[in-house]
Amino acid sequence: MGFIFTLLYFAIIAIVIEINVLLFTLTGLKKEIARFQVISMFTATGFTTGESELILEHPIRRRLSTFLILFGVFSLAVIISSISNILSDEFKSIELGIIILILIGLYLILSMPKLKNFMKKSFDKHMQKNYNLSDLPLRDVMYFEEDDVVIELPIHKGSSIIGKMLKDVIEKDKDLLVLFIKRGDVTLRKDSYTTEIQEGDMIFLYGHQHSLQEQFKDEMEEMKKSKEKKQSNSSHF
Question: Whose CA is closest to 55, among 67, 63, 44?
């Protein structure tokens, strides 16, 4: 009985995961990202990637993730108990079978195209009605295309743009926007285009990834080398 119970409970877990993957995709998250993040939250492992910000910065996804984390903790206790045959006599396989059928039915209902479209519109309407732009994830507010990025560009020693102004550096036809310049504890916004760049400045840029790589090729390569060096040093410890 305990073995059958364990198999049935694993089936419940699999269905719950698929339901949540579907719900996350309805909030605009890509399916492959949604699946990884759902499993990460359920198992409480690997939820430290940069993609986790897509969950943490989105109010609806945060609510779903709270359920997943709690359900994962509960499921771990149930599985351990079932394996040790403590709970196997307290649960009937028929009852679990009914739960599985209900969950499968729920998943099939949520998978219906008309209902998916309705729920997606409801999510979008809920976000527009109850949340300001400041509450939304950066990707939902600013990323209009797949290759749009916001980047923090450090100015290294020997950079070709030191002593220049960004209005003279960024070509007019480039799909780039300067958000602000961080110089120590000072943030330069109003004069970001007309301020002479200094070594150590951090330039926050928004635009198309290709334009950024093309316009700031040397700085991007230096930033990449710096990150690789840090990762290499950290791996030695």
Answer: 63
Locate 175 and state its tokens. Answer: 């799909």
CA angle, residues 203, 194, 198, in degrees to nearest 5:
50
3-class SS of residue 204: strand
Closest CA to 20 of 95, 98, 107: 107
CA 68 to chain centre: 16
First to last CA, the chain: 48
- Of 208, 201, 205, whose CA–CA distance to 161 is shortest? 201
Give per-residue pLDDT as tens, 77-135.
877 777 666 444 555 667 777 888 998 999 899 889 888 888 888 877 766 555 554 44
- Residues 6 or more apart in contact with residue 107 via CB below 8 angstroms: 15, 18, 19, 22
* β-bridge partners, 59: none
pTM of the model: 0.45
Per residue in 20-65, pLDDT tens?
Answer: 899 888 888 888 788 888 888 888 775 555 566 677 777 888 888 8
DSSP assignment letter at 197: P
**Taking a C-beta distance cutoff of 8 angstroms, is the pair 141, 53 a contact?**
no
